[in-house]
Amino acid sequence: MSNSKRYEFKPDYAVLPGDSLREAVEYLGMSQVEFAQRMGITEQSLFRILNGEQKIDGETASNLELVTGTASEFWINLEVQYQKQLQIKKQH
Fold first, then answer.
1. Using only C-alpha atoms, what is the Rg of the chain?
2. Span 12-42, pLDDT tens digits
């Protein structure tokens, strides 16, 4: 019989979705200008997303999926988790 314990991952920090997006842009070898153009957004919008000043909504997540090949659910989940962590930080 196994006496294994289960641990829940509850980070006490917020991971900015823009950090993952920045890595994806670099991995794809695109400039931010090219990436924004392929997404159909302005460079300013991309800059705001990268810096956490603009949320990743459903439409943005769908466009990210088309450009990066990473599921829109991934991008939405990143944003949701980031917002949750920000709320937790505000409460403490």
1. 16
2. 667 899 999 999 999 999 999 999 999 999 9
- Please give the backbone phi and psi of residue 31, each rounded to the nearest 5 degrees, phi first: -80, 160
Under DSSP, the state recorded for 4 is -
SS3 of residue 92 by DSSP: coil
3-state secondary structure of 2: coil
Half-sphere exposure in the Cβ direction for 25 (13 Å, CA): 20
Helix H or strand E encompassing 73? helix 72-91
Both tokens assigned to 47: 């800059």
CA distance 2 to 4: 6
Task: For the full predicted model, state whether its pTM sits above 0.85.
Answer: no
Which residues 6+ apart lie within 8 Å of 68 measured at CB?
24, 28
Q: How many Å apart are CA 51 and CA 43, to the nearest integer?
A: 12
CATH of domain 17-91: 1.10.260.40
